[in-house]
Amino acid sequence: MASYRIRQYRDQDYDAVRTLFARGILEHAPAGYRHVLRSARAQLGLLVLFVAVRVAAGYWVLGLGAVALVLAAAWPLVRSFSTSYVCDALSTDLCDIPSSYLRAPDSCFWVAEAGGTVVGMVAVAPPQDPAERGVALELKRMSVSKDYRGRGVSKALCGEVLRFARARGYGAVVLSTSMVQVAAQRLYEGQGFRKVGVFSPSLLGSLLCFQIFRYRCDLPGGTAAPPR
């Protein structure tokens, strides 16, 4: 028997939900930093910088120092993707969850509770893309506490969203997740989602090779998918 239960969001969950979401997003910043440093573009840029400083100054130590400075400056830039995303969410839909998800049409917000503590969360709402509205719903704000990962909480929360969309006759559920959230990608693919798009969140994201993956899960018996 599961040691948790899935229920709809309540007002007393407000602080716990916001904290869980922020921690879940910010913990991926180091992985994003490592991904950027492993990219061919970043490594080539660092090599060119080292050689240029070495030739101009005549000291390889100065070249290494320049590379170190760039690496130090890159960390806050990469982390800014996570912090800006969290700040935006906390000041918009997660600022007034009942209005955003409980009173809005075709929307809902669930939490996973264990021992009286919120250990997971997920939301569903109509997608922002006009082409997907009316035929799909969007899974949003999925997060599970580290201590409860690997226990089926994420799968159960995802299942709530799929059932919610199917019960309302929608033909698909869509979502977005970052390139560094590998465990989330495996979860969604295991639930029938397939990758349908890749994009960068900003010009800086493009320069740093930071990408967002778009996923879609088609539901049997729902509204027909839009033409491609």
Automatic annotation (TrEMBL):
Chain ranges of the N-acetyltransferase domain: 69-220
Record-linked Pfam families: Acetyltransf_1
Keyword Transcription regulation part of the UniProt annotation: no
GO molecular function terms noted in the UniProt entry: transferase activity
Keywords: Membrane, Transferase, Transmembrane, Transmembrane helix
Transmembrane segments: 44-77
Matches recorded under SUPFAM superfamilies: Acyl-CoA N-acyltransferases (Nat) (SSF55729)
Gene3D superfamilies: 3.40.630.30
Keyword Heme: no
Protein name: N-acetyltransferase 8-like
Classification of source organism: Eukaryota, Metazoa, Chordata, Craniata, Vertebrata
